[in-house]
Amino acid sequence: MKWLLLLVAGLFEVGWAVGLKYSEGFTKLVPSIFTILGMIASFYVLSLALRNLPLGTAYAIWTGIGTVGTVILGIILFKEPIDPSRLIFVGFIVIGIIGLKIISAH
């Protein structure tokens, strides 16, 4: 359950990060509201996951999920560049997430 909570927190992080783009600096009301709600949800669910996970591991995975998800949605939604070196380094983040999960599985 703790890993599922962490995943959900990371997905909320992706949501609020993308919401920041749509809110245009909090100048658009509806995207701003969803962004703020996403932030609150992300931090709350992360706090639940932290009850049973080490802080450093959980925070690294949470931000990693947010980073990877935001890069993917940036490419899909905002036509951000698909540079091979960029994808390689995002792949390193994914490897780091998997590695932290493996060594923290107990």
From TrEMBL:
Name listed for the protein in its UniProt record: Cation/cationic drug transporter
Subcellular location: Cell membrane
Database matches in InterPro entries: EmrE-like, Small_drug/metabolite_transptr, Small_multidrug_res
Membrane topology: Multi-pass membrane protein
Keyword terms, alphabetized: Cell membrane, Membrane, Transmembrane, Transmembrane helix, Transport
Organism listed in the record: Desulfosporosinus youngiae DSM 17734
Annotated GO CC locations: plasma membrane
GO molecular function, a single term: transmembrane transporter activity
Family as reported in the entry's similarity comment: Belongs to the drug/metabolite transporter (DMT) superfamily. Small multidrug resistance (SMR) (TC 2.A.7.1) family.
Main subcellular location of this protein, as a coarse class: membrane
Residues that span the membrane, as ranges: 33-50, 57-78, 84-103
